[in-house]
Protein backbone atom coordinates (compact mmCIF):
# COMPACT_ATOMS: atom_id res chain seq x y z
CA UNK A 1 0.00 0.00 0.00
CA UNK A 2 1.39 3.42 -0.90
CA UNK A 3 1.84 6.04 1.80
CA UNK A 4 -0.60 8.88 1.94
CA UNK A 5 1.15 12.19 2.36
CA UNK A 6 -0.01 13.21 5.83
CA UNK A 7 1.68 12.08 9.04
CA UNK A 8 -0.57 11.72 12.07
CA UNK A 9 0.35 11.84 15.76
CA UNK A 10 -2.41 10.34 17.93
CA UNK A 11 -2.46 10.19 21.72
CA UNK A 12 -4.39 7.69 23.81
CA UNK A 13 -4.26 5.19 20.97
CA UNK A 14 -4.50 1.83 22.73
CA UNK A 15 -8.27 1.90 23.19
CA UNK A 16 -11.48 3.72 22.35
CA UNK A 17 -11.71 6.29 19.59
CA UNK A 18 -7.93 6.64 19.40
CA UNK A 19 -7.48 2.96 18.61
CA UNK A 20 -10.26 2.96 16.01
CA UNK A 21 -8.76 6.04 14.37
CA UNK A 22 -5.23 4.59 14.24
CA UNK A 23 -6.48 1.37 12.63
CA UNK A 24 -8.47 3.27 10.02
CA UNK A 25 -5.52 5.56 9.26
CA UNK A 26 -3.18 2.62 8.74
CA UNK A 27 -5.73 0.85 6.56
CA UNK A 28 -5.89 4.00 4.44
CA UNK A 29 -2.12 4.18 3.98
CA UNK A 30 -1.30 7.06 6.30
CA UNK A 31 1.81 7.15 8.46
CA UNK A 32 0.95 7.17 12.13
CA UNK A 33 2.79 7.81 15.36
CA UNK A 34 0.62 6.62 18.24
CA UNK A 35 1.15 7.08 21.96
CA UNK A 36 0.20 4.90 24.89
CA UNK A 37 1.44 4.18 28.38
CA UNK A 38 2.15 0.59 27.33
CA UNK A 39 3.77 -0.16 23.96
CA UNK A 40 2.95 -3.88 24.05
CA UNK A 41 -0.74 -3.23 24.67
CA UNK A 42 -0.72 -0.69 21.85
CA UNK A 43 0.93 -3.07 19.37
CA UNK A 44 -1.44 -5.89 20.28
CA UNK A 45 -4.49 -3.64 20.02
CA UNK A 46 -3.51 -2.19 16.65
CA UNK A 47 -2.41 -5.55 15.30
CA UNK A 48 -0.12 -3.99 12.68
CA UNK A 49 3.65 -4.15 12.78
CA UNK A 50 4.82 -1.97 9.91
CA UNK A 51 7.79 0.16 10.87
CA UNK A 52 7.49 2.13 7.65
CA UNK A 53 4.05 3.47 8.52
CA UNK A 54 3.42 2.76 12.21
CA UNK A 55 5.45 4.15 15.10
CA UNK A 56 4.18 3.06 18.55
CA UNK A 57 5.45 5.32 21.30
CA UNK A 58 5.45 4.99 25.09
CA UNK A 59 4.84 8.53 26.28
CA UNK A 60 4.12 10.14 29.63
CA UNK A 61 2.01 13.01 28.30
CA UNK A 62 2.45 14.96 31.53
CA UNK A 63 6.23 14.98 31.10
CA UNK A 64 7.12 17.69 28.55
CA UNK A 65 10.57 16.18 27.94
CA UNK A 66 8.98 12.81 27.16
CA UNK A 67 6.44 14.45 24.85
CA UNK A 68 9.15 16.40 23.04
CA UNK A 69 11.23 13.25 22.61
CA UNK A 70 8.28 11.43 21.06
CA UNK A 71 7.74 14.30 18.64
CA UNK A 72 11.43 14.23 17.69
CA UNK A 73 11.15 10.46 17.13
CA UNK A 74 8.16 11.01 14.86
CA UNK A 75 9.99 13.67 12.85
CA UNK A 76 13.03 11.39 12.57
CA UNK A 77 10.89 8.47 11.35
CA UNK A 78 8.50 10.26 9.01
CA UNK A 79 10.02 13.69 8.30
CA UNK A 80 7.16 15.82 9.59
CA UNK A 81 3.89 15.91 11.53
CA UNK A 82 0.78 17.13 9.73
CA UNK A 83 -2.09 16.16 12.02
CA UNK A 84 -2.17 15.90 15.81
CA UNK A 85 -5.09 14.28 17.60
CA UNK A 86 -5.14 14.86 21.34
CA UNK A 87 -7.40 11.98 22.28
CA UNK A 88 -5.94 10.84 25.62
CA UNK A 89 -8.39 11.26 28.47
CA UNK A 90 -10.88 9.56 30.71
CA UNK A 91 -14.18 10.17 32.46
CA UNK A 92 -15.08 10.60 36.10
CA UNK A 93 -18.55 10.88 37.59
CA UNK A 94 -19.43 11.91 41.10
CA UNK A 95 -20.69 14.67 43.33
CA UNK A 96 -17.86 17.18 43.56
CA UNK A 97 -17.68 17.12 47.35
CA UNK A 98 -16.96 13.39 47.24
CA UNK A 99 -14.14 13.50 44.70
CA UNK A 100 -10.68 13.64 46.27
CA UNK A 101 -8.45 16.57 45.40
CA UNK A 102 -5.76 14.29 44.01
CA UNK A 103 -8.31 12.72 41.67
CA UNK A 104 -9.39 16.17 40.45
CA UNK A 105 -5.78 17.15 39.81
CA UNK A 106 -5.10 13.88 38.00
CA UNK A 107 -7.99 14.21 35.57
CA UNK A 108 -6.99 17.80 34.75
CA UNK A 109 -3.43 16.57 34.19
CA UNK A 110 -4.55 13.87 31.75
CA UNK A 111 -7.50 15.56 30.05
CA UNK A 112 -6.12 19.11 29.80
CA UNK A 113 -2.43 19.53 30.55
CA UNK A 114 -1.35 16.58 28.42
CA UNK A 115 -3.01 18.15 25.37
CA UNK A 116 -1.33 21.48 26.13
CA UNK A 117 2.04 19.73 26.39
CA UNK A 118 1.59 18.05 23.01
CA UNK A 119 0.54 21.29 21.34
CA UNK A 120 3.50 23.13 22.85
CA UNK A 121 5.82 20.41 21.60
CA UNK A 122 4.51 20.23 18.04
CA UNK A 123 3.95 23.92 17.29
CA UNK A 124 7.60 24.79 16.54
CA UNK A 125 7.58 22.19 13.74
CA UNK A 126 4.19 23.22 12.38
CA UNK A 127 5.17 26.89 12.43
CA UNK A 128 8.32 26.07 10.51
CA UNK A 129 6.43 24.13 7.85
CA UNK A 130 3.64 26.79 7.84
CA UNK A 131 0.93 24.17 8.00
CA UNK A 132 -0.71 21.68 10.33
CA UNK A 133 -3.97 20.55 11.82
CA UNK A 134 -4.65 20.05 15.52
CA UNK A 135 -7.71 18.11 16.68
CA UNK A 136 -8.42 18.26 20.40
CA UNK A 137 -10.99 15.70 21.50
CA UNK A 138 -13.37 17.37 23.89
CA UNK A 139 -16.94 16.39 24.70
CA UNK A 140 -20.43 17.79 24.42
CA UNK A 141 -20.23 17.62 28.24
CA UNK A 142 -17.82 20.56 28.05
CA UNK A 143 -20.70 22.68 26.76
CA UNK A 144 -23.81 20.90 28.04
CA UNK A 145 -23.10 18.91 31.18
CA UNK A 146 -25.21 16.28 32.90
CA UNK A 147 -25.66 15.77 36.67
CA UNK A 148 -22.61 14.22 38.31
CA UNK A 149 -20.09 15.15 35.63
CA UNK A 150 -18.99 18.54 36.98
CA UNK A 151 -15.25 17.86 37.18
CA UNK A 152 -15.07 15.96 33.89
CA UNK A 153 -17.13 18.66 32.17
CA UNK A 154 -14.76 21.29 33.52
CA UNK A 155 -11.80 19.53 31.85
CA UNK A 156 -13.60 19.40 28.52
CA UNK A 157 -14.76 23.02 28.78
CA UNK A 158 -11.09 23.90 29.30
CA UNK A 159 -10.14 21.98 26.15
CA UNK A 160 -12.79 23.85 24.16
CA UNK A 161 -11.64 27.27 25.40
CA UNK A 162 -8.00 26.36 24.83
CA UNK A 163 -8.80 25.27 21.27
CA UNK A 164 -10.75 28.44 20.48
CA UNK A 165 -7.92 30.78 21.44
CA UNK A 166 -5.24 28.48 20.02
CA UNK A 167 -6.99 28.72 16.65
CA UNK A 168 -6.70 32.52 16.79
CA UNK A 169 -3.05 32.35 17.81
CA UNK A 170 -1.86 29.99 15.08
CA UNK A 171 -4.00 31.03 12.13
CA UNK A 172 -1.21 33.21 10.72
CA UNK A 173 1.02 30.13 10.44
CA UNK A 174 -1.46 28.20 8.32
CA UNK A 175 -2.31 25.90 11.24
CA UNK A 176 -5.95 24.89 11.74
CA UNK A 177 -7.65 23.72 14.93
CA UNK A 178 -10.81 21.73 15.63
CA UNK A 179 -12.26 20.68 18.94
CA UNK A 180 -14.28 17.50 18.37
CA UNK A 181 -17.12 17.22 20.88
CA UNK A 182 -18.83 13.81 20.83
CA UNK A 183 -21.74 12.56 22.87
CA UNK A 184 -22.05 8.89 23.82
CA UNK A 185 -19.93 6.54 21.66
CA UNK A 186 -19.39 2.80 22.04
CA UNK A 187 -15.73 3.04 22.96
CA UNK A 188 -15.50 1.53 26.46
CA UNK A 189 -15.31 5.03 27.91
CA UNK A 190 -18.30 4.48 30.17
CA UNK A 191 -17.03 1.99 32.71
CA UNK A 192 -17.69 1.33 36.35
CA UNK A 193 -14.42 3.12 37.12
CA UNK A 194 -15.62 6.40 35.65
CA UNK A 195 -18.90 6.10 37.54
CA UNK A 196 -17.57 4.81 40.83
CA UNK A 197 -17.00 7.98 42.87
CA UNK A 198 -20.57 8.80 43.71
CA UNK A 199 -22.71 9.18 46.79
CA UNK A 200 -21.23 6.58 49.07
CA UNK A 201 -22.12 8.42 52.24
CA UNK A 202 -23.95 11.67 51.53
CA UNK A 203 -27.72 11.93 51.67
CA UNK A 204 -29.43 13.42 48.67
CA UNK A 205 -27.91 14.12 45.27
CA UNK A 206 -30.84 12.30 43.73
CA UNK A 207 -30.22 13.83 40.29
CA UNK A 208 -26.65 12.54 40.33
CA UNK A 209 -27.71 9.06 41.46
CA UNK A 210 -30.40 8.88 38.79
CA UNK A 211 -27.96 10.01 36.12
CA UNK A 212 -25.47 7.34 37.16
CA UNK A 213 -28.08 4.63 36.79
CA UNK A 214 -29.08 5.94 33.35
CA UNK A 215 -25.49 5.93 32.14
CA UNK A 216 -24.83 2.45 33.49
CA UNK A 217 -28.01 1.12 31.88
CA UNK A 218 -27.00 2.64 28.54
CA UNK A 219 -23.44 1.36 28.55
CA UNK A 220 -22.78 -0.58 25.35
CA UNK A 221 -25.89 0.89 23.74
CA UNK A 222 -24.56 4.36 22.96
CA UNK A 223 -25.63 5.54 19.49
CA UNK A 224 -22.23 6.94 18.50
CA UNK A 225 -20.22 4.84 16.02
CA UNK A 226 -16.42 5.24 16.52
CA UNK A 227 -15.75 4.01 12.97
CA UNK A 228 -17.88 6.79 11.53
CA UNK A 229 -16.33 9.37 13.87
CA UNK A 230 -12.85 8.28 12.79
CA UNK A 231 -13.79 8.59 9.13
CA UNK A 232 -15.08 12.10 9.80
CA UNK A 233 -11.81 13.13 11.46
CA UNK A 234 -9.83 11.82 8.48
CA UNK A 235 -12.10 13.74 6.14
CA UNK A 236 -11.67 16.92 8.20
CA UNK A 237 -7.89 16.68 7.89
CA UNK A 238 -8.26 16.85 4.12
CA UNK A 239 -10.62 19.83 4.28
CA UNK A 240 -9.40 23.33 3.45
CA UNK A 241 -11.68 24.90 6.07
CA UNK A 242 -12.46 22.47 8.89
CA UNK A 243 -14.81 23.72 11.63
CA UNK A 244 -13.53 25.07 14.92
CA UNK A 245 -16.25 23.17 16.81
CA UNK A 246 -17.61 19.85 15.59
CA UNK A 247 -20.27 18.11 17.66
CA UNK A 248 -20.39 14.39 16.90
CA UNK A 249 -23.63 12.46 17.26
CA UNK A 250 -27.28 13.43 17.07
CA UNK A 251 -27.46 13.74 20.86
CA UNK A 252 -24.51 16.14 20.88
CA UNK A 253 -26.09 18.27 18.15
CA UNK A 254 -29.44 18.34 19.96
CA UNK A 255 -27.98 19.24 23.34
CA UNK A 256 -25.73 21.95 21.92
CA UNK A 257 -28.42 23.55 19.77
CA UNK A 258 -30.90 23.61 22.67
CA UNK A 259 -28.35 25.25 24.96
CA UNK A 260 -27.44 27.86 22.37
CA UNK A 261 -31.11 28.83 22.07
CA UNK A 262 -31.50 28.97 25.85
CA UNK A 263 -28.34 31.04 26.24
CA UNK A 264 -29.42 33.48 23.53
CA UNK A 265 -32.79 34.01 25.22
CA UNK A 266 -31.18 34.51 28.63
CA UNK A 267 -28.59 36.89 27.20
CA UNK A 268 -31.32 39.11 25.76
CA UNK A 269 -33.49 38.88 28.88
CA UNK A 270 -30.62 40.21 31.00
CA UNK A 271 -29.19 42.61 28.40
CA UNK A 272 -30.02 45.78 30.33
CA UNK A 273 -28.45 44.42 33.49
CA UNK A 274 -25.35 43.34 31.59
CA UNK A 275 -24.70 46.69 29.96
CA UNK A 276 -25.52 48.62 33.15
CA UNK A 277 -22.20 47.44 34.64
CA UNK A 278 -20.22 49.86 32.41
CA UNK A 279 -19.22 53.42 33.25
CA UNK A 280 -21.86 55.81 31.99
TrEMBL record:
One of its GO terms (molecular function) is oxidoreductase activity. Keywords: Oxidoreductase. It comes from the Bacteria. InterPro entries: NAD(P)-bd_dom_sf, Sc_DH/Rdtase_CS, SDR_fam, SDR_oxidoreductase. The keyword Cytoplasm does not apply. Belongs to the short-chain dehydrogenases/reductases (SDR) family. This is Short-subunit dehydrogenase. It comes from Chitinophaga ginsengisoli.
